[in-house]
Amino acid sequence: SCVQYRLVVRDANTLQILQLYTCLDQIQYIEWSSDSLFILCAMYKRGIVQVWSLEQPEWHCKIDEGSAGLVASCWSPDGRHILNTTEFHLRVTVWSLCTKSVSYIKYPKACQQGIAFTRDGRYMAVAERRDCKDFISIFVCSDWQLLRHFDTETQDLFGIEWAPNGCVLAAWDTCLEYKILLYSLDGRLLSTYRAYEWSLGIKSIAWSPSSQFLAIGSYDEKVRILNHVTWKKITEFEHPATIANKRTIVYKEVEKSPSVETERLSFPPTRALASSLFSTQSKYDISQVPVSLQYVKPVADRANPKMGIGMLAFSPDNCFLATKNDNIPNAVWIWDIQKLKLFVVLEQLCAIQSFQWDPRQPRLAVCTGNSRVYLWSPAGCVAVQVPVEGDFQIVSLSWRSSGDSMVLLSKDNFCVCYLEREEV
Q1: pLDDT digits (tens, 9 = 90+) for 288-333
Q2: Whole-number percent of the chain with pLDDT over 70
Q3: For the chain, is the Cβ count within 10 Å smaller at the N or the C terminus?
Q4: Count of other CB atoms within 10 angstroms of residue 339
Q5: How far apart are CA 190 and CA 187, in angstroms?
Q6: How would CATH label the architecture of 1-103?
Q7: Cβ contacts of residue 112 below 8 Å, gap of 6+?
Q8: Per the confidence metrics, is the pTM higher than 0.85?
Q9: ∠377-248-419 over CA atoms, to 5°?
Q10: Where are the domains of the chain?
């Protein structure tokens, strides 16, 4: 974690401070290298990146982009190269920590997701914009040599993402046009998919961990699933405001105030009693179908309307897909991918801020901007109160790779939630 210009490294199990580093300016971004031996700290205002070593605390590295400025910084998959994007997206600079060599990639495109690495770390795809046209360049990460360079049939390329097996690259167009293009590693166009025209298009995409399915969320409140053989649609999932299917389980969050025995009341009340008097407990009830969900009509005359499928995530075993329809902000939809049907809906009291799957098993963690974290698995659903004094509003969360704990983040604080693993 970072506090102003200080980087604090803690033990993940005990939260004891292991190292304390002082940077040159306020830290705006931090990222671990893939082998967890180095930490990157980016200070965009100063155009500086500092790198710290855990094995050798006295070793340090400073990268100064100078007048070119800095808007983004990230690690390469090998954890020994740093990619810096300069201001106005003039170039991407690749710095080597081993040889101190520098490579340049020109004309990177300023888009949501313009750099993508294959999971094995062998190849990198970069979205480019030159001469008013979109291009994609594929580089070999071992020596940063150009492997393929080709133009894309897009009006305004919005993002690129590799399939987990590294064989197919998905590239999608601006939200003003529904178009997704699928390319092979050698730059061949495998398929183009368009669901409709003359309306707002793609909002989010997600590959399944097996690379067999590509889920596309769009502004028409639907998710379309493409298969990896023909790249044609096999089904589409709608997100209606009324759940009518009796086979769908709807968990509804309800709040209740805890009952306090009158014999225990005292004046002035003790701190523990006062906190229990004014706190509310949360639990889930199973709603009787049909269920009407809270539907929010988007404001038509404002940019970036809150509508359509804003969040998508496959479970690590490929069995489930979690989605959020921004028109129904308080609900998480969980789909059974084997049966291609809606399985569960979680109806929360507050709007969904974030959700993420446990990396080891089908267990979904959800936060809604209050002091609770919600966990769903096929066995059931539970709401967990974070035991902290004061206001701790969870706005995002992140699982540990082992799946036995997660970090819960509020605006100013963080805490770690430890989960007991069941012996299988």
Answers
A1: 999 999 999 988 788 777 899 999 999 999 999 999 999 999 999 9
A2: 94
A3: C
A4: 10
A5: 9
A6: 7 Propeller (2.130)
A7: 158, 159
A8: yes
A9: 10
A10: 1-103
